């Protein structure tokens, strides 16, 4: 559930009129709802309330400082994949002691940064990374807390670009090598084994792949215990899907209850890395219709937002609902909603039944995750502004880029 609803045929974000926000701040515009972000985070946190746990919001989903700060105030931890994300967490007032560091390609500089700040855990993805981290920690006179990301080889049944738990994917350590790599980790002096982690993919709408992964990971944890390697936490990753259309992903309550049942009486702290489930439906992307165009086959609504602002439809053929900001009863037609970028793949939605005129505003729903963070300046388009609403108040949380910022740092030849 979110807080984007119609009041007298006009779309509101909590207590703020979307049309008013667009008028004040221009379009295209991302609008986030604080109450929705908090509701989703609390849904996760409450689902595991009676078991030791840490919710580490996946920063990559939406890394705006205000978003991170809202979650930090709830007590959230953070799952990061770069030194940049770590710096953002700190700048937003997040607690580094609740940070897990994922990712297949951590640099020495990033390892040093995280060791000096003192994060909760490194999620190590390969033997090579294990050796490197041990060296880096040794040189700093520190011991790095680690988990090994093990690839459980389950098919998440999601889009191939966002499926990560299969043998053929680049992520994690193969299950049949895991015990050997743990034994090596135990022998290295500058590492302390804390946990095991996995992440099998994103936008999962069924429980079964999570349960299959959990069974395989718990069996590994049990085998490790027999061999004297004690695991303190199990990080189940992120990946819980959201309703973009008519999908019915499990509620965090159902998801957590099923995992806790599998866990049994093992005294493991559970770590969750949800990104999309917290942020996606806490945001909309608002765009204005520039003009309508028709040929013998198709009608196009040409809007001011484009693939550089919101790439999910172009990149993954992702479907996100497109709704009018003002409802009217005029007849509707089927449109492709396309942007001004010079690419055939530049669309926000295809074959959408809409009743629109030039000058109307449309809202692309579920845009709070993997929206602004994946934006680029392609076609020299400044990145758009972001606004967060909090009941009937709102705040610009990122200003619209100015044209001069487009070439900031560029230099002419002498
Ligand atoms: N943990 C790890 C290690 C991850 O790789 C990811 C996402 C997450 C947590 C968070 O997953 P979530 O709960 O958000 O599903 N850009 C794509 C999604 C890429 C996800 C990458 N990894 C999209 O727009 O659909």
UniProtKB/TrEMBL annotation:
It comes from the Bacteria. Substrate binds at residues 276, 312, 316, 343, 370. CDD domains: PLPDE_III_DapDC. It catalyses: meso-2,6-diaminopimelate + H(+) = L-lysine + CO2. Its EC number is 4.1.1.20. Residues 35-280 form the Orn/DAP/Arg decarboxylase 2 N-terminal domain. It holds the Pfam family Orn_DAP_Arg_deC. Pathway: Amino-acid biosynthesis; L-lysine biosynthesis via DAP pathway; L-lysine from DL-2,6-diaminopimelate: step 1/1. Residues 33-368 form the Orn/DAP/Arg decarboxylase 2 C-terminal domain. Pyridoxal 5'-phosphate binds at residues 239, 273-276, 370. Its cofactor is pyridoxal 5'-phosphate. Gene3D superfamilies: Alanine racemase, Lyase, Ornithine Decarboxylase, Chain A, domain 1. The keyword Kinase does not apply. Keywords: Amino-acid biosynthesis, Decarboxylase, Lyase, Lysine biosynthesis, Pyridoxal phosphate. Specifically catalyzes the decarboxylation of meso-diaminopimelate (meso-DAP) to L-lysine. Belongs to the Orn/Lys/Arg decarboxylase class-II family. LysA subfamily. Homodimer. This is Diaminopimelate decarboxylase.
């Amino acid at each position: 559930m979110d807080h984007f609803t119609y009041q007298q045929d006009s779309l509101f974000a909590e207590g703020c009129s979307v049309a008013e926000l667009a008028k004040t701040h221009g379009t295209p515009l991302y609008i986030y709802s604080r109450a929705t972000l908090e509701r989703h985070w609390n849904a996760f946190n409450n689902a595991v309330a009676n078991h030791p746990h840490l919710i580490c919001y996946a920063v990559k989903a939406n890394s705006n400082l205000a978003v991170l700060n809202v979650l930090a105030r709830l007590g959230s931890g953070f799952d990061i994949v770069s030194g940049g994300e770590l710096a953002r967490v700190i700048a937003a007032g997040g607690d580094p002691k609740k940070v897990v560091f994922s990712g297949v390609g951590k640099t020495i500089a990033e390892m040093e940064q995280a060791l000096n700040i003192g994060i909760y855990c490194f999620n190590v993805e390969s033997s090579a990374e294990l050796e490197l981290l041990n060296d880096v920690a040794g040189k700093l006179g520190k011991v790095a807390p680690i988990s090994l990301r093990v690839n459980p080889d389950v098919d998440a049944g999601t889009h191939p670009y966002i499926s990560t738990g299969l043998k053929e994917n680049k992520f994690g350590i193969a299950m049949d090598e895991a015990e050997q790599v743990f034994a090596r980790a135990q022998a290295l002096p500058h590492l302390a084994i804390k946990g095991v982690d996995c992440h099998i993919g994103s936008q999962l709408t069924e429980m079964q792949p999570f349960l299959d992964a959990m069974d395989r990971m718990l069996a590994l944890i049990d085998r490790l215990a027999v061999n004297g390697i004690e695991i303190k936490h199990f990080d189940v990753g992120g990946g819980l899907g959201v309703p973009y259309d008519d999908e019915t992903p499990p509620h965090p309550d159902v998801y957590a209850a099923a995992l806790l049942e599998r866990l049994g009486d093992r005294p493991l702290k559970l770590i969750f890395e949800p990104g999309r489930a917290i942020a996606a439906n806490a945001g909309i992307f608002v765009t204005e219709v520039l003009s309508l165009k028709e040929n013998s086959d198709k009608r196009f609504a040409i809007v001011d937002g484009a693939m550089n602002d919101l790439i999910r439809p172009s990149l993954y053929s992702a479907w996100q609902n497109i709704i009018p900001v003002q409802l009217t009863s005029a007849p509707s037609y089927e449109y492709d909603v396309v942007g001004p970028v010079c690419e055939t793949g530049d669309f926000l939605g295809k074959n959408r039944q809409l009743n629109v005129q030039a000058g109307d505003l449309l809202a692309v729903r579920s845009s709070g995750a993997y929206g602004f963070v994946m934006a680029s300046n392609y076609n020299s388009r400044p990145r758009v502004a972001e606004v967060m609403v909090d009941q009937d108040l709102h705040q610009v949380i990122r200003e619209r880029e100015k044209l001069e910022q487009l070439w900031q740092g560029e230099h002419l030849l002498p």
